[in-house]
Amino acid sequence: MVEIADRAAVGRESVSDAAGLRPLTSIPVGQWRALAERALEPNGYYLPGWELAVDGFASGRTGASALVSRSYAPPDGARRLIGLMPVISMTRAYKIPLPALVSAHPYGTLCTPPLDRDMAHQAATGLLRAARQAGAHALILREVSLDGATMKTLREVMLRDGLHPRVLQSQLRACLDAASEPEELLRDALGAKKLKELRRQRHRLAEHGAIRFDVARTRPQVAAALEVFLKLEASGWKGKRGTALVQDDGDAAFVRRAAPALAETGQCEIVTLVAGDMPVAAGIVLRHQDRAFFFKLGIDERFAKFSPGVQLTLDLTKHLCADPAIATADSTASADHPMINPIWRGRFAIGDVLIPLRQNDPVVPLIYGAMMLRSGVREFARRVVHVIRVR
Fold it and tell me: For residues 14 and 5, what is the distance between their CA atoms, to the nearest angstrom?
């Protein structure tokens, strides 16, 4: 067996050809799409059109490997893809040279891997077996739904083998119950006084031209609307900080490849709020199965006093609630996000999970300890930065 810790120093090539691992780009796209349709739990960020664009272009996120699980499918006996987990080494993910594999980050804050809903336990078993064959002593799943069907299946498979997952960190994230009546939902979330203030701001915004909520769905529409979004995002604080997508050639190439490609399969739309002929806010929304994923938001900060981001989110909420194909929406935002949290009042647990691959493995406590130490150092640094800013 190949020990990842021994091979990680020479880069991605050291793990992509290891037993149990293969380059992410070697997965047949048709099989991946079929698995996504059968996935036990939706994740728009691990759709092939999105993740392969990330893997091909996004800065610092290219060249991932994959753990795969397959099953013979009757009657032809073909090898059917039933599980997929994009991964990188722990060395690459955290600069910690220990033998673990970590979820490859798909430029969206959700790494729940697709498991075939009809063979979920078999799929999970195959992924853990592939990780062992690659020489890993543990898997670190980043930003997974802790109470979702996928983690439930993984826990059941691990328990059968006498293994127990450890949650490294967790938080609650905002989500939308799109089956609700939108006006009632917004009234309960924001209250009559806040809604009245937002209506007043909208009327003031309308002085710059009639307000329109546009939804781009086709590939040409999404490609054009994406350029509007990129310009809006770069015009605000992200542009000042240098983190707007268009400011990095790789990130710009990834999203320009991914968004139109997913639009072809009805899995990406771009929503834009327009005042007259001026776009004042825009957002990218992915769709997978019955769930939407609010990826990013960009606003024209010249209109900040009218709350264009909030206005767009109110229209998006109504848009999603009116769509019978959508049951829930994931904000994919940080736990304390000041804009989305008051509007989307649903919550679900998201977190990082350490999965040991063998019973009584002495290496696993080292991996766990290294992750806890890293977390403590990061939290200490965050508090120091906060104190400096306050002073």
Answer: 10
Q: What is the extent of the structural domain holding 314?
A: 179-326
Residue 269 in any domain: the answer is yes
β-bridge partners, 29: none
**Length of the chain in terms of residues written:** 391
Provide the b/e sequence for 324-339 (b: ≥16 CB within 10 Å). Answer: eebbbbbbbbeeeeeb
Residues 37, 80: contact at Cβ < 8 Å? no
- 57 and 129 share a domain? yes
Do residues 149 and 41 lie in contact, with contact meaning Cβ atoms separated by under 8 Å? yes
Does 374 map to a domain? yes
Write out the two tokens for 224. Answer: 């054009």
At how many degrees (to 10) do helices 219-235 and 249-263 cross?
150
Residues 326, 215: Cα–Cα separation, whole Å = 15
Provide the 3-class DSSP secondary structure of residue 203: helix
Q: Which residues contact 90 (CB under 8 A, 6 or more apart)?
A: 4, 8, 96, 97, 98, 99, 100, 101, 102, 140, 367
Residues 46-86 have pLDDT tens digits of 999 999 999 999 999 999 999 999 996 665 567 899 999 99
Question: Which pTM value belongs to this model?
Answer: 0.91
Token couple for 182: 């939108």
Residues of the chain under the 50 pLDDT cut: 1-18
What does the angle CA 362 – CA 366 – CA 372 come to, to the nearest 5 degrees? 140
The 3-state DSSP class for residue 1 equals coil
Same domain for 202 and 163: no
Task: Evaluate the CA torsion angle 16, 21, 22, 25 in order and state its sign.
Answer: negative
The C-alpha atoms of residue 25 and residue 88 are separated, in whole angstroms, by 14
